[in-house]
Inverse folding.
């Protein structure tokens, strides 16, 4: 499954992986803000903005084909909205690209802009999570002021999410093996409720056992880390390169175009 | 109904991130005394349960070939109480963003408000009005169906509103709103049916869980809820009125006002010529139209043909230059990697 793949990628070693999670998180946020703030009429400049996530992913050794495939899987909602622009903005515009010129509609430009921004910001997000262990991301969040309760909650959630998903898939396989047709709404609701209810009860029982085991080992509600989070010269360099890159693109957009 | 980055403007994204952070911070503060370290595992596992429960699909009535699943916000709010439920669902939304890339990083604030805070609190409040502990099965059923319906639709209504306030919609606002409400009415009914059935199942199989939750659950004060609704109405109303005035013809793309380009407004600052200027602009802008507009905006006068040809080459340079740069980066990375141990990039599968 792709989440396992992201986990595996996050445990690799590369100059990007070695960076401080706080710096990567803040940089991803700032980069996304710059991309989103581009006017919808800017399409080609998006190619320039794509360089940053591309460089991060390539240097980190994250396969680009995996990232693109993954982004396309989560795109249906935005794809529908982007495509619906075609129906609602029919202003005829002239498009110029190199020596070629042709007429199209404003909706087509908007569609490209929305989808382009989506791919770039998503690539930046994958560039963050595929190069940062989730525990490091949580530590970064804690350092950045996210409430302790939420950080611990996220830690436990992440720890058990795949276990319960596996449990869910076992139950679903069992249902698929026994239920060979549509049972009608009433029975379907009853079956679904029984399945969800049994997963719920299983989860509560699991939580009880986990809690006892953790209390037995002296868990006091805090996660401890072996390594200390420190911002190094490489982090400053990374942030400086991003700043220069964003400033250069703003300069390019405002002065030359 | 995960909101995407592209549906938001930066001020709305930052504002909702701030509002969601404040909301979650407040909820964490309120829940601090209730959720002690021995309940951390339960809370985390409840969040994970939502993922597992969302895998269980229910074939939708009247819509062959489609299926719905439990969203879980109202169920958790009813069982764990609104504060713990809101924290659990907020963590689910954050993990969906970070691990599964559902919804963007900037849209996280909107998604937490729409999918965690709003359904948890509103759903819980509505449910409490229908079903108090120890009431009949019928009241549990009706209460959870109505609560799920209202909570989900309220969350869904916020999506077009946030997009509209951002001013980035190309789809007419009311079309988007009606679509979202229509779809979420069906989802809400399915959610309500499953929530009710799960509650009834739990009452039969493990009544201790429900009883314990009913005793421990936090109570929301009526004035607090009314004040929240009034505040939300004022904020949304103010946002929408701003949006209505800046986008007079629905959600057609406004060329007349582009906050990101203050100098552009100067071109059509004369109201009486606004429409003519917009039409003229529309007929002239290109796929990288900011270039053409900018030429005009900065007073680089010249024949339209020349400007467009220039824009064409600039866009060509931007795309081809970027492609070349990316190619170069890939080549350098590949060379370095092969030199450092002869290993290529790890494979995805």
């Amino acid at each position: 499954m792709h989440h396992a793949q992201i986990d595996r990628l996050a445990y690799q070693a590369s100059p990007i992986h070695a960076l401080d999670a706080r710096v990567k998180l803040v940089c991803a946020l700032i980069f996304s803000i710059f991309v989103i703030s581009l006017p919808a009429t800017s399409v080609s400049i998006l190619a320039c903005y794509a360089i940053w996530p591309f460089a991060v992913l390539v240097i980190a050794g994250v396969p680009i084909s995996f990232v693109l495939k993954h982004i396309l899987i989560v795109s249906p909602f935005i794809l529908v909205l982007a495509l619906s622009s075609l129906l609602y903005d029919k202003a005829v515009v002239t498009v110029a690209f190199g020596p070629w010129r042709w007429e199209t509609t404003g909706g087509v430009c908007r569609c490209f802009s929305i989808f382009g921004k989506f791919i770039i910001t998503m690539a930046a997000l994958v560039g963050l999570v595929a190069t940062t262990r989730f525990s490091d991301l949580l530590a970064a969040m804690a350092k950045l002021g996210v409430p302790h309760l939420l950080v611990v909650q996220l830690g436990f959630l992440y720890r058990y999410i795949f276990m319960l998903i596996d449990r869910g898939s076992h139950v679903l396989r069992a249902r698929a093996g026994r239920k060979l047709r549509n049972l009608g709404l009433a029975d379907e609701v009853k079956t679904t409720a029984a399945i969800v209810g049994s997963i719920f009860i299983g989860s509560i029982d699991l939580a009880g056992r986990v809690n006892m085991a953790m209390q037995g080992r002296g868990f006091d509600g805090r996660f401890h880390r072996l390594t200390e989070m420190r911002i190094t010269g490489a982090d400053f360099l990374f942030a400086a390169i991003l700043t220069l890159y964003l400033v250069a693109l703003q300069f390019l957009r405002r002065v030359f175009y | 109904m995960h909101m995407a980055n592209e549906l938001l403007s930066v001020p709305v994204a930052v504002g909702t991130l701030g509002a969601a952070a404040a909301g979650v911070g407040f909820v964490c503060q309120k829940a601090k005394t209730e959720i002690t370290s021995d309940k951390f595992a339960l809370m985390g596992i409840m969040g994970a349960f939502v993922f597992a429960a969302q895998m269980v699909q229910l074939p939708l009535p009247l819509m062959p070939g489609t299926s719905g699943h439990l969203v879980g916000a109202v169920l958790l709010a009813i069982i764990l109480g609104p504060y713990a439920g809101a924290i659990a669902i907020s963590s689910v939304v954050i993990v969906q963003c970070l691990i599964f890339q559902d919804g963007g990083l900037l849209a996280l604030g909107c998604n937490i408000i729409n999918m965690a805070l709003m359904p948890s609190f509103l759903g819980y409040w509505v449910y409490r009005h229908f079903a108090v502990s120890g009431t009949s099965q019928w009241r549990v059923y009706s209460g959870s169906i109505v609560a799920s319906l209202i909570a989900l639709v309220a969350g869904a209504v916020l999506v077009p509103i946030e997009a509209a306030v951002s001013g980035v919609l190309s789809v007419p606002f009311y079309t988007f709103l009606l679509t979202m409400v229509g779809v979420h009415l069906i989802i809400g009914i399915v959610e309500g049916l499953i929530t009710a059935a799960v509650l009834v199942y739990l009452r039969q199989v493990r009544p201790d869980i429900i009883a314990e939750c009913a005793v421990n659950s936090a109570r929301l004060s009526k004035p607090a809820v009314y004040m929240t609704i009034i505040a939300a109405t004022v904020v949304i109303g103010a946002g929408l009125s701003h949006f209505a005035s800046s986008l007079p013809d629905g959600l057609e793309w406004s060329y007349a006002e582009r906050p990101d380009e203050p100098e552009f407004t100067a071109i059509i600052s004369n109201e009486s010529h606004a429409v003519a200027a917009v039409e003229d602009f529309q007929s002239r802008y290109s796929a990288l139209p900011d270039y053409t507009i900018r030429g005009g905006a900065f007073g680089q006068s010249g024949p339209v043909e020349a400007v467009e040809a220039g824009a064409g080459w600039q866009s060509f340079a931007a795309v081809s230059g970027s492609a070349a740069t990316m190619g170069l980066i890939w080549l350098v990375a590949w060379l370095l990697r092969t030199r450092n141990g002869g290993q290529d990039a790890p494979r995805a599968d």
